[in-house]
Amino acid sequence: MNSNQANGQREQWGSKIGFILAAAGSAVGLGNLWKFPYMAGKNGGGAFVLVYFVILFLVGFTLMMAELVLGRHTQLNAIGAYRKISKAFTWVGVLGVLAGFLILSFYSVVGGWVINYVVKSATGALHTTDTGALGDMFGQLVGGTVEPILYHGIFMVLTLAIVFGGISGGIEKASKIMMPALFIMMIILAIRSLTFEGASEGVRFLLAPDFSAINRGVVLDALGQVFFSLSLGMGCMITYGSYLSKEENIPQSAIVIPLVDTGVALLAGLAILPAVFAFGFEPGQGPGLMFVTLPAVFAQMPLGRIFELIFFTLVLFAALTSSISLLEVCVAYVVDEWKWNRKITTMTLGAVIFLMGIPASLSNGPWAHIQILGERGFFDTYDFIASNIFLPLGGLMLCLVVGWFWGIDKAVFEATNNGRIRFGLAPIWSFLVRFVAPVAILIVFIRSIM
Ligand code: PFF
After folding, report:
1. Residue nearest to atom 12 of ligand 1 (CA)
2. How far, in Å, is the centroid of ligand 1 from the Cα of 111?
3. How far is the CA of 7 from the centre of ligand 1 (A)?
4. What's this model's pTM, rounded to 2 decimal places?
5. Which residues cross the membrane (predicted)?
6. Fewest Cβ atoms closer than 10 Å to its Cβ: which of 7, 143, 151, 328?
7. Ligand 1, pocket-test mutation among 230, 236, 239, 327, most atoms within 8 A of CB
8. pLDDT per residue as tens digits for the range 157-175
9. The complex's ipTM?
């Protein structure tokens, strides 16, 4: 007996709101607060945001539905779910679990930076408007050898501690407080950032699309970002869906989760990019954007030090509600299929992921010269392979499996709780999942690989 199946019954979410918050918690994370603003900065701002929105509507909602429906129907982990539809698709689930490993390996490194920033804000080390000094501080941390690995380890330990507890543990309760707190915090920050002199240039950068900036790279990055940010394409929502009761309204959840996720990403963009322009930073500077710009914003706010501490703590929490979902994808598979004990599984996988993360951490410092894929070091290679290849490929296969092989009628039947609830968008969703989403993914994918 294992904790996924106490009394032969699969464990379920404690409540409806608990599931929504856990799934939104998985979606809202470093992808929104840290990655979205710098991806937008790197890819021409509004051009990226526009493409992101188009892909979000065509692909994001569609795949969210598909994963949740497949998960609840099969009541299985990512690999088990695909295999139940047909043995020929087992590999799609395997790809998902591998993506989980890869993503968590570098995600946890960034999570470690966040913990370090919680400590730094508690001691007041970040309380300066000297952006040069802030840049140096960030560079020193991520370029180090032992320190970032140590913090990466602490982040993994926190992740393990939560996953140890199983599904309906403290995370549901904690999410109820922390998710709304994060939302309010982001609004306050966006307002402060928007009221700096020169901020409007940042708003224009983020929201006014420069069509000439749209190219293949931008489209592939936006596609990868939709998958990454919504936790799609690797079976995370299949796994979370497998713990859903047959009463849950999946169509509703599949709309609420992406809306919350996108709202937080936009707020993060509005909190960071206007300040970037007001302070004369470079928007395309990459991963350091959140860590360097925001402290300067806080330093210019009343009670800034306290807000800063609260903010980085909330970022840490958002990262943890995502990292546990990444680990859960891998753990659920081993617990379900190999019948391993949940705690032993969690520790073993956690150790492997910690080790895989070490090269990712070092590639920002002592190993910066090592190139793995093109000019990418370990960190960027993990991100690229997972976000831009595995997740879109997983998403494409998901559409084919749900829309064509399993059968769209059966999928809609599951989505309507066997005909007991209304799903007015069913014809549109069916069309999107069978034709629009797979074709869109395929086009982006092929064009960018060529
Ligand atoms: N969606 C998370 C974020 O935006 O930070 C990252 C993530 C979590 C990706 C879970 C994939 C996943 F399965």
Report:
1. 231
2. 12
3. 31
4. 0.90
5. 17-34, 46-70, 91-115, 149-170, 177-196, 222-243, 255-279, 310-335, 347-368, 389-408, 428-446
6. 7
7. 236
8. 999 988 877 556 656 666 7
9. 0.98
CA–centroid distance, 31 to ligand 1, in Å, is: 7
Report d(CA 266, CA 249) in Å as an integer: 26
Quick one: tokens of 285? 């500077």
Query: Tokens 């989760």 sit at which residue?
Result: 257
Atom of ligand 1 nearest to the CA of 318: 5
Residue 322 Cα, ligand 1 centroid: separation in angstroms? 5
- Kindly list the structural domains of the chain, giving each domain's residue range(s) and its CATH number in brackets, ordered by start: 38-449 (1.10.4160)
Both tokens assigned to 167: 């599904």
Which residue(s) pair with 373 in the sheet? 376
